[in-house]
Specification:
There is one protein chain. With about 325 residues, the protein is an alpha/beta fold. The protein has a domain at about 5-180 and about 220-245 and about 280-295: 3-Layer(aba) Sandwich (Rossmann fold), CATH 3.40.50.720. The protein is about 40% helix and about 20% strand. The chain has 10 helices and 12 strands. The strands form 3 sheets. A 7-stranded parallel sheet has the order 3-2-1-4-5-6-10, with helices on both faces. Strands 7-9-11 form a 3-stranded mixed sheet. The protein has a two-stranded parallel ribbon with strand order 8-12. The radius of gyration is 19 Å and the shape is globular. The termini are far apart. The structure holds nicotinamide-adenine-dinucleotide. Nicotinamide-adenine-dinucleotide (NAD) binds near residues 85 and 187.
Amino acid sequence: MSKKAVVTGAAGFIGSHLCERLLREGYRVTGIDCFTDYYDPARKREHIRFLLGDQRFNLVEENINTCDLRGLLDGAESVFHLAAQAGVRRSWGSEFTHYLDSNILATQRLLEAMRGREGIRLIYSSSSSVYGETRELPMREDHRLRPLSPYGATKLSGEHLCELYHANFGLSYAALRYFTVYGPRQRPDMAFSRFITAAFRGDTIEIYGDGKQTRDFTFVSDAVEANCLAARYAGSERIFNIGGGSRVSVLKVLDILRGQTGRELRIEFTERARGDVLDTWADTSRARTELGFSPSISLEEGMGREIDWYRERLGDSSGR
Ligand SMILES: NC(=O)c1ccc[n+]([C@@H]2O[C@H](COP(=O)([O-])OP(=O)(O)OC[C@H]3O[C@@H](n4cnc5c(N)ncnc54)[C@H](O)[C@@H]3O)[C@@H](O)[C@H]2O)c1
C-alpha cells in the first residue's frame, strides 16, 4: 500500500502544486479544502481539476473547523497544513474573524486530531510575516518575532500551537516560513498576479509605497520541494526559513516584467499598505544545512513561467 498524505488547503495556490508533486511521488493524497471565497472558488476548482481523475486523490470539500478530521487522518504519515486565510492587507477590522477561524482555530483543531497518533508528522505552512519590520537582515529563525499585521500574528500563533503540542505530546512537526511565493496559479491578490494581469490588459498597476521595498521571492516548486524535504527530515530543528534567494525591489520586478512582456507599464504609486513590511530577506542556512534545501528557480525564469501561465489564461498571444 502506498504512503498516505493529507494536504489542507489542497485547492489553493501552493496546496494544488504540492498535491500534484505528492501524487507524482506515489502518495495517496487526501486533500481538504472548503473553497473559501477570498478569491474566486472557480479558480481553485481549476487548480485541481486535472487531479480529480487520479484515483489516488481524494478531495474532501469540508471546513477544517467542522469536519470529522479523525477519519481523514487515519493511515496518514504526513499532514501538510496549508489551509489558511492568507493576505496581509485584508486582515484588519471585521475581516479578522476569518483569520482567527482559519489560521488559529483550524490549526488547533487539526493538532487536537493529530495528538497521540504514532508515526504522523505535521508540516505547517508559516510565513515570513512572523518577523515584522526589522533592520536585522537577512532574517534568521532565532531573530525577534514582532508581526506587523494581524495576519502575521495569526500565523505566529499557529507556530506556537505546533510547538506546544510538540512540547506536551511529542507531536512531530516542522514549520516552514515561506518568503513571498510566486508562480503559475498564484493568488490573484498577490503582487505578481496583479502586475502581470494589469500589464496584459493595459490597466494601471498600483504600487503600494515607492516601489523600493524588497522581497525575497520564492518560486512555488521550491516551496513544494521544501515541504517534501521537511516531511522526510528526522533531525531536531523545527522552524525553517524558506526563501528563493532572489531578493529584489518591486521596481526591479517591474523592469523584468517590462522586459519579458514587451509592454509599456502604466504605474501609479499609492500609499504604503498598513501591515506590509519594507523588506524581507531570508537567511536559509538552516534549511540548506538541515533539510538540504536549495532553491533552483531564478526570479527571471520563475517570472517567465508565471507570465506564460497568465498569457495562456488571459488568451494573450502577443508580447515577449
Ligand atoms: N503565497 C505566499 O506567498 C505565502 C507566503 C507565506 C505563507 N503562505 C502560507 O501558505 C499557505 C498557502 O497559501 P496560498 O497562497 O496557497 O493560499 P490560498 O488562499 O491559495 O490557499 C489556501 C486554501 O485554504 C483553503 N481554506 C482556508 N480556510 C480553510 C478551512 N478552514 N478549511 C478548509 N480549507 C480552508 C482555501 O479555500 C484555499 O483554497 C497558507 O497557510 C499561507 O498562510 C503563503
